[in-house]
User: What shape does this take?
Amino acid sequence: MKINIPEVLVHLRQRGPHAAAEKAAMGAAEAVMARPRLWRAALRAARIGSMPWRRKGFVRRMPWPVSKWTVSRDLPVPPQESFRDWWKERGR
Assistant: This one.
């Protein structure tokens, strides 16, 4: 069978209930990602802000409200170099 699992999962996620905080966070993420300068600044802030909680390549047990996420999941450490910067130097 050729079931497009990623497409099915996205469809099911859209149908499920979403908390107001989740909707607000996704809206903020969308607004930041739509503006390249703001996105670069957010990545820099994430690199610096995550330093106290870094352990072995992951960000763990951050303070509230992010702790609701990190209590059961590890976030990868934000990269020191963006993909676009990496591509400019090595990709061509």
The chain is about 55% helix and 5% strand.
